[in-house]
Amino acid sequence: MEASEPPVTVDWPRYSSRALPTYRFLPGLTPHPRRDPLGHSFAEPEPRPRPFAQHQWPDSEDYLYAVDLYNFGYWWESHEVLEGLWHACGRRTTAGNYFQALIQFAAAHLKRALGNEVAAHNLAHPLGHSFAEPEPRPRPFEHDQWSNSEDYLYAIDLYNFFYWWEAHEVFEGLWHACGRKTTAGNFFQALIQFAAAHLKRALGNEIAAHNLVRSGLLRLQNSPTPYMGLDTVTFADDVTVWMEDNSRPGVRIRLRHYGNGPSVNKAP
């Protein structure tokens, strides 16, 4: 379905009673649903789905609507509702794991629709672990031992090569493992928010991206520099420039005096 085409009208069952949007949002091609006055959901609040027990799925109008949006090619819109369900039903529950997988599938479809096959494959290819493998459980470490933490280094690699969702998962595990109220926890929470901001921008949600970056920068101000190999001041400056210019590529994390993989200065 091209950007100019009407919504899909294939002979496929509808599961919810809600009307489908008048068009599907494709970043850069169609009006933003909430920010643009011509958007199909302009001035409307973001969806706030209600939680439900697994066996009650036929009664969840939010879930059924998300499935309808997905089935009829409204990838961005379905992503929004599924993300709301992910938060509502518990991010670390079985239901949360399931919704997280569907979120990535929706994002992969959107990336393919926009002609970005690399991003689509990155989102869809590793999804088997979302159903079969446990969530990452990184080990705690002291901040001056960062170069020995395979979990931390792997999270940096994921971030630098644009696996925003996957990096977010590992950073969140480190945030819990190293203490959420500690200096390390504050640092990881900032990186979590930056990863989420990149993902939101990739999906065309500039408002959410800006809000996440602002919060992350405030947290980074409370981090020492350098910290865990990162010049936090320079990194904060780079993120600020990136946020002000949406044509710039993602901001990479460059660790001091370390690195044995492909250069982060080259596109993945």
What characteristics describe this protein?
268 residues, mainly alpha, 10 helices, 0% strand, globular, disordered N terminus, disordered C terminus
Describe this protein's structure.
By secondary structure, the protein is mostly helical. It contains 10 helices and no strands. The longest helix has 20 residues, at 94-113.
What's the short story on this structure?
The chain has 268 residues and is mainly alpha-helical.
Low-confidence stretches: 1-7, 127-132, 259-268
Cα separation of the termini: 28 Å
Can you summarize the main beta sheet?
Answer: none
Morphology call: globular
Q: Which band does the percent of strand residues land in?
A: under 5%
Supply the helix-strand structural class. mainly alpha
Q: Average pLDDT across residues?
A: 83
SSE topology:
Elements: H1 61-71, H2 75-89, H3 94-113, H4 117-124, H5 128-132, H6 150-160, H7 164-177, H8 183-202, H9 206-221, H10 232-244
